Amino acid sequence: MKRAALVALMSHWRRNPLQLFTLLAGLALATALWSGVQAINAEARASYDAAAATLGEGQFDQLLSRDGADIPEAVYVALRRGGWLVSPVVEGRLEGVRLVGLDPLTAPGGLGPVAITDGADVNAFLTGDGQIFAGADVAEALAGVGVPVVVADGLAPGTAITDVGVAQRLLGLDGVISRMIAAQAQPLGQRPLEEVAPGLMLRAAEQENDVGRLTDSFHLNLTAFGFLAFAVGIFIVHGAIGLAFEQRRPVVRTLRALGVPLSVVIGLMAVELAVLALVAGVIGVALGYVIAGALLPDVAATLRGLYGADVAGTLTLRASWWLSGLGIAMGGTALAATGALWGLARMPLLAQSRGATLGARWRALVLGGLSAILLGGAGVLLVWGSGLAAAFVLLGCLLIGAALGLPLVLDLALALGARGARGVLGEWFWADTRAQLPGLSLALAALLLAMAANVGVSTMVSSFRLTFTGFLDQRLASELYVMTEDAAQARALEAFVEPRVDAVLPLMMVEGVLAGVPGSVFAARDHATYRDNWRFLEAVPEVWDVLHRGAGVLINEQLSRRARLALGDGLEIAPGTVLPVIGIYGDYGNTAAQVIVTEPLFRSLWPEVYPLRFGLRIAPDKVPGLTTALIEEFALPEGQIINQGSIKAFSMEVFERTFTVTTALNVLTLAVAGFAMLMSLLTLAGLRVPQLAPVWALGLTRRGLGWIEVGRAVLLAALVAVVALPLGLALAWVLLAVVNVEAFGWRLPMYLFPVDYARLGLLALAAAVLAALWPAVQLARTPPAALLKVFSNER
Amino acid sequence: MNARVLVLVLWPGVAAAQGFAGLGGDADGFTLPERGHVFDFPSDHGPHPDFRIEWWYLTANLTGPDGTPYGLQWTLFRSALAPETGEGWTAPQVWMGHAAVTTPDQHYATERLARGGIGQAGVKAAPFEAWIDDWGMAGSDMEALTLTASGPEFRYDMRLTAEGPLVLQGEDGYSVKSAGGQASYYYSQPNYSIEGTLVLPEGEVAVTGSAWLDREWSSQPLADDQTGWDWFSLSFDSGDKLMGFRLRQVDETYYTSATWMGADGVVIPFEDGAFGAEPLAEATAAGREVPVRWRVTLPDKGLDVTVTAINPNAWMDVSIPYWEGPVTVEGSHAGRGYLEMTGYE
């Protein structure tokens, strides 16, 4: 009997293949977007873990030079002989690969995942030409450097490991090291650091700008997008399941009348859904793999550009990821079907099919109530919430609250429209549109979310781009930037360029802890470049004069927010030196704290720091000539001269890559929403024949009815667009003013882009027309006999 | 890969066929010890980079103000990857330091590793200086030395004064290690008096006592079929001293050697078979069964004593783990000394 019942139930899908397709496609798409994002995140995390395992990043304290310069090898030996258990690290890029030189004898984490399994190799690693251990992804790039390359697993992507001496030779860093890692257990009787190596600072492991923590916000962002896409997909699934169950009530009734127990019917339907979910899940995970594979190179580029974190550009299949993809498909289906199954369980044996509008208003009111609660919650979070997670919950409350409230808003708008209706046809149009709302509300909610996300994200990205380009123009005012290797070369360079340029602006920096936050102190020379170009978020009058009198410091927005420093507050920049904050500037180039002091003060506080980098002001047409002179006459390597244009281009490239993924996900979400709309209209079209037949019988042509259907879709899409715009702007505001502050420490000004919004609105209308056209054409071609049958079959 | 694994490879692990710590490896390119070699001091106090392995090995029996016995170890090993020396990271001389302090109930041990070419570790003959990181053994000559080492839990600063002459072990410093003729150059200074301060977790302790320095270098001191050794350096209340060792072979036979250093200054070497050492009791140290009570005999000198570890748990948990700790001596002769046992894996 079970078999017969199953066949009877399954016959529904055979008769409604479109519904089956909707269900499977919706679920597969939802799973695909979700698992695609998860795959990207998992790949990135695996890369961070490999990096941490290799270099002990985040686990060990580090010793760095205060001025960021390389450290003489002799300082390392002096530290060891002073009882400091430190290990040297030499780092640099070679053929586009991050080459890390380690000393396996002293490195507290050893060589990480690299295992020298064969005794014969140790000799090769430590002496002679040496050896490079590299992942398969970079081994080829290093083939020509003259050192044997051994392919090793488990290395961080884009990274190769070799002996410290080999790295020095290959990177041209003879006699110097980049930094040191300190072992966790240090011996008794260590000499004080300032006595052994006064130019170095100890950066505690927990203070480290840990890559994982920095990139968390980026991954949270991706996860939020994946979740949004999944929610939209689940709307589709929920709609399709609801419809299918509604249509199968007669079958269920018949089966039960024939003696099949309710539990068996429900069990069979649950099993059927589970099988469908499994199939859709497999398709979705496979699709997700394709999406992740397509997006990962951009994600990898973003993470490298923004945070210097190397992430593999290729995907590895992970079992956990497959399982979680299937799990989320099953879970999503269960979530979407619970209501339908519950309704079925409580259905009286002989119940009639529910009228389409029965209880719709009541339901809209309940949803409206929920919506009010969620929106209220969003307001509460906005005022009292703190932290990145709270910011994302706020976003979720805002979006879901708006989606739930949409039916009520549309119902009110349509009721308002009905008041202005003229004539019988007009009144029927408005009333019929209202009657269709419950069936369409899920698709419309999906469209609302997708459009709002689109408005919000594009506003955020475009605002960011405008701010960022302005910021680059301000900050990269010098035409040329040159780097020198040591103080002697720096002095020679200053003498060389002095007569050739309008101004030499030394770039001096020390790292330290500012108001409990790790950051850097920069020196500013008294020059018009700064006065003319810098813009402040807040500043005292004549801020540059005050600064150069040594009567205050400038801080970036990040430091101001993190340490809660306002204008006039004192800040200790060096032991015993406390100065008031006189200006706060926007800083969109990094996430760390920064302080600027006048050059003379800097030199008196840190006399040992000598500028190695310089900005040169010169008429733009003289730039090529000076570059040539620097290379040919001064013999500065070309790599140490960077012109303004190429830094800007590089920065913009990093910026664009950051948002490539966001934009791509955005477009995908919109596509899913359009699909949801199409599927809802298509399934509704079949159901609506009984409602349209009387209208046809009263004299309206089928073609006329078709046009009315199209008009209805356009009207609804337009109403959704009207709601989506303010919602999207609210979303953009939360992203700019709340999420960004939490994630990066800066707040961005919000700009509006009406043309973009209009284009999006038109796109939504076009999608609605397209979605409505097919069912409308179907309607126009419905044979009159089918319409007539409605009257004869009416139960 | 961590440093420990690397060291196991540099001093290849205890593969039975290779002998303990790979000391039975082949000697291609390295100089081999020769019978009849005449030592040249002070330059022989310094390193011999053309030999594969070399050590400066100091142990001391100490006594605190309340009579508590303590043991101290300071060791610097040199291992050459190639029989060359040079400057910079690629110089093939690698150094390993071990330092330990043993109390009746605690054993603190620590290890350092360093490259020889960058100045982080090394030895100079005159004025004498042996160092790795902040550890050092130094003096204008070998007659008076300062000694220091530190770890996360302990530290010591000592002064040593030689109370007698150097002793050449074996045949004028040519010490045979197997029936097959493997040998090393080996001399000792067993007559140091020592005083100084131990810094331990429970506080500082002023100590005095006696110390014993072993100097040994070779390129292949063990035979392929030898798996480890049990090494005794004993100082008797009579003023006599005994160095004796038993090399364990895979067929469970032993190769033994000893040197009797009489209080009268007469030094007598003994060939294989004269010296006897048999375990009387074992204890578990770091999960291994290790003999910690021995019967040691040298019938030619009427010696039949029981040697007992002061702290059975003196396990050196370093890259190449071994047991090294102070002992007491009872029986025909009373005294104290140091015991080293390797190859108990």
Show the helix and strand layout.
The complex is a heterodimer of chains A (795) and B (345).
Chain A: H1 2-15, H2 17-55, E1 61-65, E2 71-72, H3 73-81, E3 86-94, E4 97-102, H4 119-126, E5 132-134, H5 136-139, E6 149-151, E7 159-163, H6 164-171, E8 176-177, E9 179-182, H7 193-196, E10 200-203, H8 211-247, H9 249-257, H10 262-307, H11 319-345, H12 360-384, H13 388-419, H14 423-475, E11 480-483, H15 487-497, E12 503-507, E13 509-514, E14 517-524, H16 528-533, E15 538-539, H17 543-548, E16 553-556, H18 557-562, E17 570-574, E18 577-585, E19 593-598, H19 599-605, E20 613-617, H20 623-632, E21 641-643, H21 644-697, H22 702-744, H23 754-780, H24 784-793
Parallel strand pairs in A: 4-7, 5-6, 14-19, 16-18
Antiparallel strand pairs in A: 1-9, 1-10, 2-8, 3-4, 3-9, 5-7, 11-20, 11-21, 12-20, 13-14, 15-18, 16-19, 17-18
Helix pairs in contact in A: 1-2, 1-10, 2-8, 2-10, 2-11, 2-21, 8-11, 8-14, 8-21, 10-11, 10-21, 12-13, 13-14, 13-22, 14-21, 14-22, 14-23, 21-23, 21-24, 22-23
Chain B: H1 3-10, E1 53-63, E2 69-80, E3 93-102, E4 107-115, E5 121-124, E6 128-132, E7 135-139, E8 144-150, E9 155-162, E10 167-168, E11 174-176, E12 183-200, E13 203-218, E14 226-236, E15 241-249, E16 254-261, E17 267-270, E18 276-285, E19 288-298, E20 303-309, E21 315-316, E22 322-331, E23 335-341
Antiparallel strand pairs in B: 1-2, 1-13, 2-3, 3-4, 5-6, 6-7, 7-8, 8-9, 9-12, 10-12, 11-12, 12-13, 14-15, 14-23, 15-16, 16-17, 18-19, 19-20, 20-22, 21-22, 22-23
